[in-house]
Design brief:
This protein has a single domain, classed as Rossmann fold (3-Layer(aba) Sandwich). The chain has eight helices and seven strands, in the order βαββαβαβαβαααβα. It has helices at 12-23, 56-63, 86-114, 136-156, 174-179, 182-190, 200-210, 236-243, and strands at 3-7, 27-32, 45-47, 68-71, 117-122, 161-168, 222-225. The chain has a seven-stranded parallel sheet with strand order 3-2-1-4-5-6-7, with helices on both faces.
Length: 246
């Protein structure tokens, strides 16, 4: 049975991704720093704080054989660029960028030896535009993750390793709910042509597909799972009003 490691698996997108992999017959390892309230009792839990980037190689050595890596864990603080506390910025870059790179580097040798593997990095639509919640370092970390995804995909494809990313749009995860007030949420959903929040399960289904045999030819993609929010630059209703004018 193939093993998938899902980071940030205790809640939100990671939780639903772990659940969907489990339903698809995978052995799932769930990694997070806090599993309070975690509902999937049959899944092995790996308690680990990804800020400890230097300890990641030893962690992977302990976990053994892993066939698929889902780099989902992320953190977010909301400050304008000129008022961003250094500690917050460093934590964001550690968890959102340095840790995924370290996990990949620790796992790559065994994937190359098997000449098979799947890696999916969970980036953000912020990487292609900006963060909707005044989080400059978050935007930078996710843009960096997309750049690394493209470069890595090119280098490891000959070894049978597929690397792709998804870019979540507006999703009511616990992290988003902590950082977006009601007005921000109303403004955000108005920008989504689909007219609804994207769900963690929407993302999880795309991730599982990218790890399936059906996605074998997909390398270096950044799939926007955003309900069309990157297609426009104004609320959809406002656009339609302008469109009808003569």
């Amino acid at each position: 049975m193939s093993t998938v490691l899902v980071t940030g698996a205790a809640r939100g997108i990671g939780l639903e991704t772990a659940r969907l992999f489990l339903r698809a017959g995978w052995r799932v390892l769930a990694l997070d720093k806090d599993f309070s309230g975690f509902p999937l009792q049959d899944i092995p839990r790996v308690e680990f704080d990804l800020k400890a980037v230097g300890e990641i190689p030893a962690l992977i050595k302990r976990l053994g054989e892993i066939h698929v890596l889902i780099n989902n864990a992320a953190t977010l603080y909301c400050h304008p660029h000129d008022a961003f506390p250094e500690a917050d910025a460093l934590e964001i870059l550690a968890v959102n960028l340095r840790a995924p790179v370290a996990l990949i580097e620790a796992l790559a040798p065994q994937m190359r030896a098997r000449r098979a593997g799947r890696i999916v990095n969970v980036a953000s639509v912020a990487a292609k535009r900006i963060s909707f919640t005044a989080a400059a370092s978050y935007t930078a970390s996710k843009a960096g993750l997309l750049g690394f995804t493209r470069h890595l995909a090119y280098e490891v494809a000959p070894y049978g390793i597929n690397v792709n990313a998804i870019c979540p749009g507006p999703t009511l995860t616990p992290m988003y709910e902590r950082n977006a007030d009601e007005q921000t949420r109303r403004e955000r959903i108005a920008m989504v042509p689909k007219g609804r929040w994207i769900t963690p399960a929407d993302h999880g289904r795309v991730v599982v597909f990218l790890c399936s045999a059906s996605a074998d030819a997909l390398c270096g993609l950044a799939v926007d799972v955003d309900g069309g929010s990157l297609l426009g630059w104004m609320p959809w209703a406002h656009y339609m009003t302008k469109r009808k004018r003569k």
